[in-house]
Amino acid sequence: PEREEFDIYATMTPAKEVGGDFYDFFLIDDDHLGIVMADVSGKGVPAALFMVIAKTLIKNRAQFVKREDGNYSPAEILGFVNEQLCEGNEAELFVTVWFGIMQISTGKGIAANAGHEYPAVRRAGGKYELIKTKHSPAVAVMEGLRFREHEFELASGDSLYVYTDGVPEAANAEEELFGTDRMLEALNKNPEAPAKELLHTVKESIDIFVGDAPQFDDITMLSVTYFGRQKEWEEEYKLTVEAKIENLQQVLDFVEEKLSQQDCDNKTMVQFAVAVEEIYVNIAHYAYPNSIGNAEIRVRIHKNPVLAEIVFIDRGIPYNPLKKKDPDTTLSAEEREIGGLGIYMVKKSMDQTLYEYKDGQNILTIMKKL
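User: That's the sequence. What structure does it adopt?
Assistant: Structure tokens below.
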């Protein structure tokens, strides 16, 4: 994907016999990046076909499965893929998978490791280290598997490296394995190198170690460096008020004034007004239950493309409204559970709605093209 928030590159050097390694990276939506590194058991045409099916299932399922809190679940996706692959698996093949989904705007992600190699992570300015989390069984080992998942986070300048066992298990003529220690040593020769150069350095180190010994397994690697959201807006306006209901009109007037300067059409103006009122009223009512605190509203104008970004910041109790389950709008008002309709309408009317809790602050952002 052509995105400024990250640099990503992958390579695969196939063995002489057709194998089952595969990697993939793809945008699930405008704010989520899926990363897959996997290795099918066995060799030859059956493994290659199994690989194609597994890769397709993971990517397709990722496009449609979202948790109630608005996040994606690699574990749930792998659970579905597992059931599909187990059907008619007469060759008894299986696939080890590292599958991560990262929110591009924050660097926060969720990953599942189904019997795969441990990833390596480099923090900005540091060196690569293996990150060891609990494995789940490989996919398609048996029906009914449930997979573990864990959270991770990349800050600006951090890098992630994932690979198949063809890297540490590359062997020289004396049948000595390359191993993860040599892999980390290769990564740390120039740890701040761009993704493409980094993978070239590792492959070069493997080739020197292996020498003329034959390659019996695919060597597949992927590296991603996260830069985060750069300053994209050309104009920013700020308003800070006490988080009280009586200040609602001041907030609405502030937002309307700034949007009017951008020739915002009436329909979009109304959608923003409804969203701003819903979010601000929630802050005023619930952010500071036992005290009085401030709410900061920032209006940012982007030029390419032209869009408005409105950020709400408070230091009240931590609360992510996007975790609220969407109401069933097919039911009547009497039948529906109380709550959740307001933020649901915000999400529906905006192009993007994001939340993060950072440095003791609730930060809720809405964005829409003008």
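The domain at 233-369 is CATH 3.30.565.10 (Heat Shock Protein 90).
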